[in-house]
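Hi,

I'm pasting everything inline rather than attaching a file, because the server keeps stripping attachments. The sequence lines come first, and each chain or strand is labelled.
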Amino acid sequence: MLEVCGAGAAEDLFSHLPPDVRLQRPLDLPPGQSEYSIAAQFREWADRTASGYASFLGAGVYAHFRPVVVDTIVSRGEFLTSYTPYQAEISQGTLTAIFEFQSMICQLTGMDVANASMYDGSTAAPEAAMMAVRATGKSRVLTARAVHPEYREVLHTYARYQGLPVAEFGYDPDTGLADLADLEAKLDGDTAAVLLQSPNFFGGIEEVRAIAELTHARGALLVFLFTEAVSLGLLRPPAEADIVAGELQSFAISPSYGGPFAGVIAAKEKFLRQMPGRLAGETKDAAGRRAFCLTLSTREQHIRREKATSNICTNQALVALMATVFMSLYGKQGLRELATQNLAKAHYLAAKLPLRFQAPFFNEFVAQPRGASPEVISARLLERKIIGGLPLGRFYPELDGCLLLCATEMARREQMDSLAEVFA
Amino acid sequence: MIDKVRSHPTQNEPLLFEISSPGKVGYQLPALDVPPVDPEGTLGARNVRAEIEGFPEVSEVEVIRHFTRLSSWNYAIDLGMYPLGSCTMKYNPRLNEMVARLEGLAWGHPYQPETLSQGALEIIAALEGALREVTGMDAVTLQPAAGAHGELTGILLVRALLESRGNPRRKVLVPDSAHGTNPATAAMAGYTVQPIGSGPDGRVDLAALASLVDEETAALMVTNPNTLGVFENGILQAAEILHAKGALVYMDGANMNALVGIARPGDFGVDVMHLNLHKTFSTPHGGGGPGCGPVCVKQHLEPFLPTPRLRRNAGQWGWDYDRPQSIGRVRAFYGNFGVMVRALAYIMAHGGPGLRNATIDAVLNANYLRKRLEPFFDLPYQAPNMHEVVFSDARQAQRGVRTGDIAKRLIDYGFHPYTVSFPLIVHGAMMIEPTETESKQELDLFADALIAIAREVETDPELVKSAPHSTRTSRVDEVAAARKPVLRWRPAPPRQAAD
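And the predicted assembly:
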């Protein structure tokens, strides 16, 4: 090969580089290792990452059982090692699965259209807000304080450099749900979007209809956010919202220390042209047979460049496929049964603990231990190999002393009893 | 004679919704070990949904068959060479998949105590360290979820630094050969995009650059090697021009597979760059993601990196949230950790010398294809290429055959097409990146295929223009898809009795 290239040695291939840009020494990295030793090293690391603990952490990342079939499918090289399906004739597998994904997200959320995925929920939220800014021609974004704190941080980062003012409206100190009076006071004629999460960060189920009415009365769009997708199996879909943005981690996606997850944006039909990200659409091939392809790409960066709806290119396709397989396995009946089990487990646990808020909740709630700080409780729980909830003071100083707890279908009764003992 | 493939049947498969029938399930839940609850009673009837209309009802074996049949309609690296230029479709080692699924790593919760996360944090620290060494930069954040997300992070860092100096400035210079994400990113970060032309050799025109850079220029976004696969030999001078006016150099690291172990952006004037772990560091593309887009910076940009930052304190790893100058978060939690695990496993398997050898092989493979194909296709830029080579369809266009047609015909020969019609500065571009993981046998099959197609263009151009002929789906009507978008399945209207 070198001879064909007219090179005496491999080094000659780089002789055209200016000498002063060349690295004149070997990389300071250890020599290559065998499969055996790499696997052993990662096992050692994995063993020092909370193996063998029962966990009641939720807060945007949920422990749900992952059906075995999910990894069977996503480990197939045809899905795992393919690129973005730009060449439709040899990508019909991926394209068909995306089309099914989009369809199921619409069915779940009550929206008309859904995209092929976003990086995660926290980046889908600001992208949805920017959709609303483009659609309304207004610039202000109002977010509920009970939206996931890290989602709000990402929103502030995205908005700040585009000159979009972001304001927050509070929650009712008794219910933990959106404070409608505060929302009404802060809504003005320049508000493009109101961001509302339900179940909210405290687990409470928001009054979506009332908030949609207030929002629409001032000419703003309602962006509905979700972090716990399993809740959609049981809770009324946010049909009054204009845009829905959420996180699908609950659909058979490993917690994986925070990622990779899959976000998604769905919306009413009239906002389709403002949608960021890829879309698969149905069409026909030259022989008139049904086929799918990526479509409406004139919204996207590779065509529109600086005028695109977003710069997003790579998304989370394989992770969205996990969610698609999960939704297929559980289906209409299973998703409801799964959600109902979550409801039962969380309410069993909550009945044993002092709750901070009075409001309907799904599988998460805020507890306010009496007599001991969250830190002391957490330490005692760790002795029992239980990771308790998330101390909230870090995100909400006024809730210092409170813990956010989650019980999914994976929570076992004896673990919950054990946790309740420590609280008591 | 086509050596690589012959046709074989694939199975038809309807959509999930079309094979669905009431009452079928593909799951089992354990018996509830707590008292059951009544959803309406617990949540209020107004909060409970009706059944999910149209949602699938299928059995486990139907799910397996459905997705297995769909998978057989995909091309993949596991089936052969995938020479998409600038996409770096290399083999994805399976060890990486195995270690990412180890229980502690796959089930780690981002809010579990740091004392119970030391293994995960050590992995992140090790990867940050390796990427600093590979790029010659001073600090790395792994938070961005993909390349474009890394670009946005990088340009926000530029903006934050310039703001701290009193003026964020107005414009970002982007070469006309750049990826579309570059101008889209600059716009998202609130900048005006100023395109900058390429010189006759395909490289950034330094004279044009010098005339455009002024006190309102925030940065140049440069891909190096550029999208022609050509190293920007004037990069040191370009950096001097930018730095003299207080502007910064952003490098798009999409083509880093040409440089690892050979040259480091940190040594040639780059202030900030992103990497694509799903390109250079072998993590699978998965049909379009997930990726991971680390951003590497020089020290002067370090204070602005996203929160939190990894730090070591009293022998333990932990997260530092006290970062007053930070641009803030760009993503919840710490990024696509599972992708980081895979990339680190790749780096460990190669080691320093192995990474450098991979680069050499990638460049050798691209140069070998250039030599084999040059007699048959127009090569618009003659500069030496690195890991990819860009031809044009100029000769074939005389027969009415375009780059997109040649690409579709390649499918009949058993290959995924090259990148079509990009970069934009080459009319009818055919952008070929073989990567280091292709053998000479596979490269020869690919070159033979393109040469055979070049002959077909002379003898039977219609054969090429109507390709592909061997796929289960013939050429797809993308225009019709966009004209009347059908983006979700809906049940067919009930049939009339008279049908």
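Chain B has 16 helices and twelve strands.

If the labels don't parse on your end, tell me and I'll reformat.
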